[in-house]
TrEMBL record:
PROSITE patterns: ABC_TRANSPORTER_1, ABC_TRANSPORTER_2. SMART domains: AAA. One of its GO terms (cellular component) is ATP-binding cassette (ABC) transporter complex. GO terms for biological process: quaternary ammonium group transport. Keywords: ATP-binding, Cell membrane, Membrane, Nucleotide-binding, Transport. Residues 2-230 form the ABC transporter domain. This is Sulfate ABC transporter ATP-binding protein. GO terms for molecular function: ATP binding; ATP hydrolysis activity; transmembrane transporter activity.
Amino acid sequence: MLHLRQITKRFGPQTVLQGIDLDLGPGEFVSLLGPSGCGKTTLLRIVCGIESADLGQVLMQGQDITAWPASQRRFGVVFQSYALFPNMTALQNVCYGLSALPRREAAERAAEMLALVGLLDQAGKFPAQLSGGQQQRVALARALAPKPRLLLLDEPLSALDAQVRQELRAEIRALQQRLGITTLMVTHDQDEALAMSDRVVLLAKGQIAQQGAPRQLYQQPANALVAGFVGRMNWMDGQVIAEGRVRVGTTMLDADTRVYKTGSVVRVGVRPEAIRLLDGEGAMIRARVDALQFHGAVTQVQLRCDALGATLSLELPSGEAAGLTEGEVRGLRLPAAAVQLFDAPLSMRRAA
Ligand SMILES: Nc1ncnc2c1ncn2[C@@H]1O[C@H](COP(=O)(O)OP(=O)(O)OP(=O)(O)O)[C@@H](O)[C@H]1O
């Protein structure tokens, strides 16, 4: 459907995008995720046609559209700031992109789109009379009304409060699937990317660090950068001391060491949900409960573990955490499958 070939973009001396290759299949929902400044908005703007690449090509359904102006691409775009015309009603806003249609047909189509986003009863209101979530729904209806070939979403939910965001997340995804429209979304919110997408593309320093299904990125991160950005990770320093064994602090842990030679200095990552809490008595690894932070359904637990030389963070259902008190000592189990090894930074390897 959409193919990006070797997209490169510089702003002055700064290379913002470096040879990006990306393919979107029909009906696919792909998120561009990455830290601030990694170039994701610039890439979306290049796809959109409001920014041009220094090198590379944008192909849509086999056609080279690199030099086409935005207006000819027939893409629908939704921005973070709703970008509605304040002096037009919701219906007029949605009609705006339908000028090619006879007036009555345009009004019918706009009403149909407003019904699709659940706002037909608000059609006569002006943007200032609508909530943020409603305005963003109108913006979505406006983007979809001309039956675009591609839907581009630029941080569409980040101006909304948490609850509306959750609702709209599900609504946008359901609508996208129902219409089968190929969609590219920019977000810096990993939860959003994981929850909404068929595929997540993680950008870092202008390059694709990894792309794959949300579950794949979470469970098989290609490197420490991806592991740290997608989901939470407890980090420790370690050294592979034998096949299947890594030393962390003064503790020997079982781990899959296959890609590392004995003696390698590594970063050791453990997902919070993989840590098992046990009774303190007789446990191999002991840790002190340093802090408990109540978040409603779950409680964040900080554990100081001298044997690992680390403070670990995990999340427990609050019912389970109710039995914990600050200062008490518990046991820890880190199953081998939970202990993930990554390349240590060069400085750490040199120091070793
Ligand atoms: N028109 C411009 N002129 C000069 N530099 C720019 C321009 N647009 C973007 N940049 C720079 O390019 C880099 C990438 O910007 P971009 O907006 O694509 O990042 P991003 O990943 O979307 O970040 P954020 O999530 O903060 O929006 C940044 O360092 C930014 O300052």
